[in-house]
Amino acid sequence: MLSLLNINVSYDGSRILRGVNLTVPEHSLVCLMGRNGVGKTTTLKAIVGLVKPEAGSVKLAGTELLGLPPDARARKGIGFVPQGRDIFPHLTVWENLKISLVVHGTKANGQVDRVLELFPILKEFLQRKGGVLSGGQQQQLAIARALLTDPQILILDEPTEGIQPNIIDLIGDTLLKIKKEGKISILLVEQYLDFCLSVGDSFYIMDRGAIVANGPISQLNNDIVKKHLTV
């Protein structure tokens, strides 16, 4: 569904990404892991068009995305939830959801009912301002908003950051439901190891801007964790 080939990115003369190769198969959930500052978020920005690689290829379902602006990539089928969620705090939950439909020119076609079924708390708070929601509720809103764009791939940057454990479990269960439906692939940047083990099909680990380990999630053993993930 998504493939990155030899992606290189530099900021102000410093190399941030070094020949990154990564594949997200159809209907799978892939975890991109690594310590702070190793290039995970930059990799996501290269996919969605917020940074420009010097070289390489980013393909979605066989279509080259490099050269397309972020909005065009979103319309090709990328749903992105950035770190920090970036909801509109002064708009209601319903307005946050509706703006996603309007901007992407997407018809509801029952999709709003679907995301409210996935995240029931949002249905209770449709008229509540986004800024007064808890962090976990905002994260649910951000994921729901991304799903309303009808993406082929959902990309999440640190979805468990700063969220209470019961909501982390709820988000994990929801991602598993989405994956089971077989319509959307998921790429997840995450440092919470247990979360990755519970939801992931495969993993990639980054260090100093390069992929240093990858494989099925079942192969994410203690030696790999100690070498590449332990602080």
Gist of the model:
This protein is an alpha/beta fold and 231 residues long. It contains nine helices and ten strands.
Describe the protein in words.
By secondary structure, the chain is an alpha/beta fold. It has one domain: Rossmann fold, CATH 3.40.50. It has helices spanning 40-48, 70-76, 93-104, 111-118, 120-124, 135-147, 165-181, 193-199, 222-228, and strands at 2-11, 14-24, 29-33, 55-60, 63-64, 78-81, 153-157, 185-189, 202-207, 210-216. The chain has a 6-stranded mixed β-sheet with strand order 6-7-8-3-9-10, with helices on both faces. α7 (165-181) links the parallel β7 (153-157) and β8 (185-189). α3 (93-104) runs parallel beside α6 (135-147). The longest helix has 17 residues, at 165-181.
